[in-house]
C-alpha cells in the first residue's frame, strides 16, 4: 500500500508505510492517507471471525494491518501485534469486548482496559512496537517531545517506556491534571521517560513544543519527533477495533451495526470511516461532541469554523475540548472526491483567511448521512452527569464522562439508525473521579491494577515557562 498527502496535487510522489510511520504532517502540510482503501467482502469477514475466535485479537490485528502495510515482513508485523496486545497489558486475553446495556439497542464497546485506562492505548501500544522496530531497522534514535493535558501523554509514555532508541519528554501544565493522571505519568521510573511540569497552562506547553521545533538545528541534532494523533499508524491501529467490535456484536457476516463515538480530534471516528469505506457493514457513525461542538456544527450544517483558544470551554470531558479537529482533513479529502488541490485551498487559504469553510451547498455534504453514514449530536455537563447517574441507577453500569457524551448522543439516534449501536468507551471512570462523584454521590471504584498508584514516588522536574530552559534540560539529559 502506498500513501499520499491529503493536499497532494496530481502526479505527486507516494510513500510507503514505514516511510510515513515516523513522520507527522506531510511536507505540503497535509495528512497521509492510503492511495485507496482496501476492500473486504463477506468471505473475508467470515475468515476474520474465525481468526478472532481462534488466534485472538493480535492475530486479527495482523490480518487487518497486512492490508495497509507491505514494507514490513509479515512475521515481524505479527510479532509487533503480539507484543502490543497482551492479556497482561489489557487485563484479559480478549483485549476488546462488548456488553449489551440491558436488553435495549445500546452496547458499550470496551476499549479502555489498557495500561492508562483510555482507548488511546489501543493505538499507542502498537505504535510503540512499530517505532522501536523501525528505528532498530534503520539504526536510528528519536526524541519524542510532546505536550499533554492528560490522556495522550500518559498513553505515549506507557507505550514507549523502556525503548532503548527513544527518549520521551512530556510537558504538562503544573498542578492542572487530575491526581490520577499525575500519579500515572509521574510514577514511571523508566530512565527514558522525562516528565516536565511547566509553570503555565496547557497552551504554554504547546507553545514551547512549537518553539523547540522551530529551532531547526536543535531539532536535527536531537532528532525531535512526535506521537500526536495525526500519525497514520495510530489511525490504522484503530480500524482494527472497529472490526473486532463488529465481530463481537454480530453473528452474521452481513449484519449492519452503528457506532457512537465521543470525538475530539476526529482520530477515533476517522478510523470508523475508513472501516466503513473498506466495506465493514457499518450503518451510522454517530459523532458525539461536548460543549466544544465544532464537529457537530459541521455535520449538522456543513459549516466548519475553527475556534480561537479563548472560545474553547473547559468541560468535564476534557479530552474532547478542542478548537479544531486535527484529523478532520482526512475525511474531507474523501468527501470532496479526493481533490488534493481543493483540500489545500480549504484547509490552507480558506481557514487562514476566514477561519473556516462552508460545504453546505455541495451535493457531497447533502448526501453525507446516506453516503458516509455520519450523523451527530452534542452534550452538556448536565447531560453527562444525568447520563452517568441514570445508567448507573437503572443498570449498574458505570461510565466515564466522555463515554457519557457518546451514550447521550446515541440515545437521540435510537430508532433512526441500525441497531445495535455500539458506544465506544474512551476512558474508565477512575480517571475522572470528580464528575463521577457528582453523578452518583460516590467516587468510582479503583480497578485492582491501579491500587496504590497515587502513593508511588514521583519523577517530575519543574521548569519555568521558557523554551530555552526546556532545550537546556533535553541537551543536558541527552548528553
Ligand atoms: C482522545 C480522547 C477522546 C477524543 O478522541 P479523538 O480521536 O481525538 O476524537 C475522547 N475521549 C477520551 C477519553 C480521549 O482520551
From TrEMBL:
<dbReference type="InterPro" id="IPR004450">
    <property type="entry name" value="Thr_synthase-like"/>
</dbReference>
<comment type="similarity">
    <text>Belongs to the threonine synthase family.</text>
</comment>
<keyword id="KW-0028">Amino-acid biosynthesis</keyword>
<protein>
    <recommendedName>
        <fullName>Threonine synthase</fullName>
        <ecNumber>4.2.3.1</ecNumber>
    </recommendedName>
</protein>
<dbReference type="InterPro" id="IPR001926">
    <property type="entry name" value="TrpB-like_PALP"/>
</dbReference>
<dbReference type="Pfam" id="PF24857">
    <property type="entry name" value="THR4_C"/>
</dbReference>
<comment type="pathway">
    <text>Amino-acid biosynthesis; L-threonine biosynthesis; L-threonine from L-aspartate: step 5/5.</text>
</comment>
<comment type="function">
    <text>Catalyzes the gamma-elimination of phosphate from L-phosphohomoserine and the beta-addition of water to produce L-threonine.</text>
</comment>
<dbReference type="Pfam" id="PF14821">
    <property type="entry name" value="Thr_synth_N"/>
</dbReference>
<dbReference type="GO" id="GO:0004795">
    <property type="term" value="F:threonine synthase activity"/>
</dbReference>
<keyword id="KW-0663">Pyridoxal phosphate</keyword>
<dbReference type="InterPro" id="IPR029144">
    <property type="entry name" value="Thr_synth_N"/>
</dbReference>
<keyword id="KW-0456">Lyase</keyword>
<dbReference type="InterPro" id="IPR000634">
    <property type="entry name" value="Ser/Thr_deHydtase_PyrdxlP-BS"/>
</dbReference>
<feature type="domain" description="Threonine synthase N-terminal">
    <location>
        <begin position="2"/>
        <end position="85"/>
    </location>
</feature>
<dbReference type="InterPro" id="IPR037158">
    <property type="entry name" value="Thr_synth_N_sf"/>
</dbReference>
<dbReference type="Pfam" id="PF00291">
    <property type="entry name" value="PALP"/>
</dbReference>
<dbReference type="InterPro" id="IPR051166">
    <property type="entry name" value="Threonine_Synthase"/>
</dbReference>
<keyword id="KW-0791">Threonine biosynthesis</keyword>
<dbReference type="InterPro" id="IPR036052">
    <property type="entry name" value="TrpB-like_PALP_sf"/>
</dbReference>
<feature type="domain" description="Tryptophan synthase beta chain-like PALP">
    <location>
        <begin position="103"/>
        <end position="344"/>
    </location>
</feature>
